[in-house]
Amino acid sequence: MKREQKISQFGFFNVDKPSGIVSSAVVNKIKWLSGVPCGHMGTLDPLASGVLPVGVGNATRLFDYFLEKEKEYVAEFTFGVDSDTLDSTGNLVQGGHVPDETEIAGVLPTFFGDIMQVPPKYSAKNVNGRRGYDLARAGIEFELAPKKVHIYGMELLGKKEGSEDTYLIKIRCGGGTYIRSLARDIAAALGTKAVMSALRRTQSGIFTLQNAVPFDFFAQDPTVEDLEKYLIPTDSVLPYERLDLTERATVKILQGNFVSVDALDGLYKIYDGERFYGLAEVVEGKAKAKTKLC
Questions:
Q1: Residues 153 and 194 in one domain
Q2: β-bridge pairing 194-204 and 49-56
Q3: What pLDDT is stored for residue 68 in this prediction?
Q4: Which of 9, 13, 101, 178 stands the most exposed, by the fewest C-beta atoms within 10 Å?
Q5: Domain ends where: 182, 204, 226?
Q6: Does 262 fall in a domain?
Q7: Residue 148 gets which letter from DSSP?
Q8: Judgement on whether residues 176 and 131 belong to the same structural domain of the protein
C-alpha cells in the first residue's frame, strides 16, 4: 500500500539503527514513508546498531562524497572464541586464551594508519559475480584479497561489566573497514582468537549518535509533516564552501558552461538564488557544475 503524500524536501535522516535488523529494512521503511527513492551510506551488519545516514531523494547522488569519511565505533570483542562469521552470530568454537588489558592496549597501536585487511568471507564482497556470504553459506571455498583501510586510532575502554573475556574498544577508522576483521587480526597478534560480539557506530562523518533519530520513530508510521521535522537539509551536511557567483555567471554555470571565478581549486556548493542546486568543481580558475541535485 502506497502513501498518498510524498515528502516535499530532500536531504538526510540520521537514523539510530537497532541491533537485529538489516540496514536495507531501515531504508525500505523510510522509502515507503517518504514516497521517494532512498539509500543508506555505509551498511551496518544486523548485529550492529547506531548511526545509519539515509539519503532521501536526490541526496542519494552525494554518496560518493561520503565514502571516505571518518567513522567511529564502540566494539565488543570476546576473546578465546572463534566463528566462521567472525562475530557472535556464527558457529562458535572455543579456542585460545583471554589476554589481559595491558596486552591488548599494547598491540592496538600496531594497527594505526594504513593497514591491509582481509574482509570476512561472510560479507557482501563480490566474488565472480556472487556475494561472499552466499558462497560461504553454500560451503564453497574461496579467498578474498586483502584491501587497504585506514585506522585513525583505537582506545581500550576496559572489560565489559560482568564479563571475564569481553573488552570494549573505541575505534576511529576510514570507510570500508571491517570491524569483525579487526577482532580477528588483533587476536591473532596476541596469539589467540576473538569475535566481535557487539558493535555500535557512534559517528559517520558529520552524523553523530547525539542527534540520531531512533528507528522506533519511523516504525510508528509518522505523518509526512512529522517526518520532515527530522530531515537534515542536503547542503548542511556537505563540508564545502559556497561559491558566490554573479547572476549572469549563475545562469551560465547552471546551463553547464564553464565560468571564470576567483577561487581555489576544489569542490563548492552552488545555488540558484537561495535554492541549493548542487556541487561545482573549480580547476585553475574555471568552475563547472559537477553534481546536480534539483
A1: yes
A2: parallel
A3: 64
A4: 101
A5: 204
A6: yes
A7: E
A8: yes
Return the amino acid letter for 168.
Answer: L
On whether residue 5 sits in a domain, the answer given is: no
Q: Yes or no: say if 27 and 44 are a contact pair by the CB < 8 Å rule.
A: no
Return d(Cα 23, Cα 47) in angstroms, integer.
10
Same domain, 47 and 126: no
The grid coordinates listed for 29 are 521503511
- Of the candidates 29, 40, 93, the one whose C-alpha atom is nearest the C-alpha of residue 66 is 40
Q: What is the model's pLDDT at position 140?
A: 79
Tally of structural domains, the chain: 3
Give a yes or no: residue 3 inside a domain.
no
What is the arithmetic mean of pLDDT over 95-115? 97
Which residues neighbour 131 within 8 Å (Cβ) at sequence distance 6 or greater? 123, 124, 125
Instruction: Identify the CATH number of the domain in which residue 169 sits.
Output: 3.30.2350.10
Catalytic residues: 45
- Domain extent at residue 50: 11-66+206-235
Strand, helix or coil at 288? Answer: strand
Determine contact, residues 123/142, Cβ cutoff 8 Å.
no
Amino acid at 202: T
- Please enumerate in sequence order all residues whose Cβ is within 8 A of that of 255, keeping only pairs 6 or more positions apart, or say none: none
Tell me the pLDDT band of 58, cut-offs 50, 70 and 90: confident
- Using a 10 angstrom Cβ sphere, with 0-12 exposed, 13-18 middle and 19 or more buried, the burial of residue 123 is buried
**Per-chain mean pLDDT for the chain:** 91
